[in-house]
Amino acid sequence: MNRRQVRLALPLAAAFAAILAAAVPAAAGAQTSRADNGLARTPPMGWNSWNHFGCDVSARLVREVADAMAANGMRDAGYAYVTIDDCWQVARDARGVLIADSARFPGGMKPLADYVHAKGLKFGIYTDAGRKTCQGRPGSYGHEALDARTFAGWGVDYVKVDWCWADGLDARTQYATMRDALLAAGRPIVFSICEWGENRPWEWGPGTGNLWRTTDDISDNWNSLLSNVNISMQFATAARPGAWNDPDMLEVGNGGMTRDEYRAHFSLWAMMAAPLIAGNDVRQLSDSTRRAGETRDILLNREVIAVDQDSIGRQAIVVQSPHPDLQVWARPLADGARAVLLFNRAPVQTTIHADWRRVGIRTKTARVRDLWAHKELGVLDGYSAMVPAHGVVMLRVTPIDDR
Ligand code: GLA
């Protein structure tokens, strides 16, 4: 693998200075580009096999996941794409067409896509812009047009394109080749760029794909989450309808973090207008265990999802940081309200205060709703709350014109 650590991130201190100096920025200009396939007007939502199942993918798993998502409320909450990550492909045939593992995917991909579609969901698949995938399966380099046509023929709605085995290749060029191949294939396909933020994709991603990874792979722990947040938060101005920063898939429900940490994870992704791609075993979501209940309350929190999916698509920035571990994040919403996150990165509970002016509220008072307690908190001229260790309080703050 030609994986490298992300080296492009600004030092955090410099990033903070820049962020704190900025007011909530004006909307990124309404740019259209050749990438504009009209898709992903809000951040994509769905499920992907990698975080929980790794290479252990099969048609049976995908069918069971689709069944679960249709039954457990996920589909109705907006989770649409069911994506098979690496390891489904084994070789190419004499004509160069990718062949799926026949033991794991008997019948191939077309019937599986049909099954997922019949459940009212969309079907996603994975390839690599280099010579091989990260797990050594055939990559799409030199086969872009054929692979795009193959995917379109199978009924694929979403393609994640990785960046292993790409030594000597130029990311911008290769992803543009894949973009053009997908556009030429004649089926609407969301294009997910996955080069881990190594080639400044926030600069060319909006002209190439619908989302681009900003970071190395997430793991199911707090430090990994913070590291991805620290990076992805720097590129807020690149996000816009159709084009999103991707700090990687969700770990919610995989067991490595506490309930408060997973709430923070989900809230931060929603504030950052990040794709919400569940990475857990969603077949267990309806279990009667405490853990399943907590996971359900997070992944199906419609008030938090509504922030992520807000139509103006503005990624939050940090507007107050009284201490490096304490942050207030804000993002403007389509109806004039602000989503506000009190974020405690420290391992002890602490009070955090949100100041309306810093949050971008110009009226003296505002109506405050707590999006985790699902409760109206009243009409207030600012808000202070005790925030749990490694936790958040997430609010919707609506200005009241009281002049
Ligand atoms: C890379 C990607 C991951 C996953 C694996 C699969 O590490 O960043 O998201 O797709 O490859 O091999």
Q: What descriptors fit this protein?
A:
TIM Barrel; 13 helices; 403 residues; eight-stranded parallel β-sheet; six-stranded antiparallel β-sheet; binds alpha-D-galactopyranose; 2 domains; Immunoglobulin-like; alpha/beta; 29% helix
SSE topology:
Elements: H1 12-21, E1 45-48, H2 50-53, H3 59-71, H4 74-77, E2 81-83, E3 89-92, E4 98-100, H5 109-118, E5 122-128, H6 144-154, E6 158-162, H7 171-184, E7 190-193, H8 201-204, E8 211-213, H9 222-232, E9 244-246, H10 259-271, E10 276-278, H11 290-299, H12 302-308, E11 317-323, E12 326-332, E13 338-344, E14 350-354, H13 356-359, E15 365-370, E16 375-380, E17 383-387, E18 391-400
Bound molecules: alpha-D-galactopyranose (GLA).
Please provide a written account of the structure:
With 403 residues, the protein is α/β, with parallel strands linked by helices. It has two domains: 17-249, Aldolase class I (TIM Barrel), CATH 3.20.20.70; 317-400, Immunoglobulin-like (Sandwich). Helices cover 29% and strands 23% of the residues. It has 13 helices and 18 strands. The strands form four sheets. An eight-stranded parallel sheet has the order 9-8-7-6-5-2-1-10. The longest helix has 14 residues, at 171-184. The radius of gyration is 21 Å and the shape is globular. The termini are far apart. Mean pLDDT is 93; it is low at 1-32. The structure holds alpha-D-galactopyranose. Alpha-D-galactopyranose binds next to loops.
**Spatial extent as radius of gyration:** 21 Å
Number of strands: 18
The largest pleated sheet is described as: 8 strands, parallel
Number of helical segments? 13
Shape: globular
Bound molecules: alpha-D-galactopyranose
- Low-confidence stretches are 1-32
CATH architecture of the largest domain, by name, is Alpha-Beta Barrel
The overall pLDDT average reads 93
**How is the largest sheet built, in terms of strand order?**
9-8-7-6-5-2-1-10
CATH level 3 topology of the largest domain: TIM Barrel
- Structural class by secondary-structure content: alpha/beta
